[in-house]
């Protein structure tokens, strides 16, 4: 039987370590790939990466190299990349998990606070394009037919629950689960609460 590859996409912090606590709590037999983003957070820069579409290209290359179907698990900006990759390769994506992401919709209009100033203070050497990126996929979401788990923290100021409900209304096969006390980084901080619903959805 062909193995399913699970690809984990971090947010703008860029580090593959973000998803490590969750990955460690999922079945050891599952093939897993934890990606990092060149030039974001404290990650080394790559002259070939100059925008979101270049990161989407990194993901689609991994999808193309997989022997079989792929599950995508994306947090924050990684969720936006997940949406774009799923729109490009609907035939290869089996299941999706989105956590605390914009999903390419108007987060500010749904009550999310602007993260960019804090990000610049925390990661002064990060690529400039990351805080200039804007995306609107609200009218594209209906095209994603893969089952989607929307896993949200209930105290996330950056992507509040209103965003999750908005996505749930537009993604045809979405299920919403809430992590009590979860802020924007809850998959890393609350891995014991995060891993079980992901395991059920991807199992």
Give the topology, please.
Elements: E1 5-9, H1 20-24, E2 32-34, H2 52-65, E3 70-75, H3 77-88, E4 93-99, H4 116-122, E5 148-153, H5 161-170, E6 174-179, H6 186-189, H7 191-202
Parallel strand pairs: 1-2, 1-3, 3-4, 4-5, 5-6
Helix pairs in contact: 2-3
How would you briefly describe this protein structure?
The protein has 203 residues and is α/β, with parallel strands linked by helices. It has helices spanning 20-24, 52-65, 77-88, 116-122, 161-170, 186-189, 191-202; strands at residues 5-9, 32-34, 70-75, 93-99, 148-153, 174-179.
Explain what you see.
With 203 residues, this protein is an alpha/beta fold. The protein has one domain: Alpha/Beta hydrolase fold, catalytic domain (Rossmann fold). It is 32% helix and 16% strand. It is built from seven helices and six strands. A six-stranded parallel beta sheet has the order 2-1-3-4-5-6, sandwiched between helices. The longest helix has 14 residues.
């Amino acid at each position: 039987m062909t193995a399913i590859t699970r690809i984990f996409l971090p947010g703008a912090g860029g580090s593959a370590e973000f998803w490590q606590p969750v990955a460690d709590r999922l079945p050891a037999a599952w093939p897993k790939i934890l990606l990092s983003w060149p030039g974001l957070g404290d990650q080394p820069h790559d002259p070939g990466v100059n925008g979101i579409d270049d990161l989407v290209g990194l993901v689609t290359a991994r999808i193309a190299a997989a022997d079989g179907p792929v599950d995508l698990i994306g947090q924050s900006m990684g969720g936006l990349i997940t949406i774009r990759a799923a729109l490009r390769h609907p035939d290869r994506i089996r299941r999706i998990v989105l956590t605390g992401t914009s999903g390419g919709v108007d987060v500010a209009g749904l009550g999310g606070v602007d993260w960019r100033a804090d990000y610049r203070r925390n990661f002064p050497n990060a690529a400039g394009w990351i805080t200039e990126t804007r995306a609107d996929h609200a009218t594209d979401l209906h095209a994603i037919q893969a089952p989607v788990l929307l896993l949200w923290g209930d105290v996330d100021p950056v992507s509040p629950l209103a965003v999750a409900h908005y996505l749930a209304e537009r993604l045809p096969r979405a299920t919403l689960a809430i992590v009590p006390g979860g802020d924007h980084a809850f998959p890393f901080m609350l891995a014991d609460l995060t891993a079980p619903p992901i395991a059920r959805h991807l199992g």
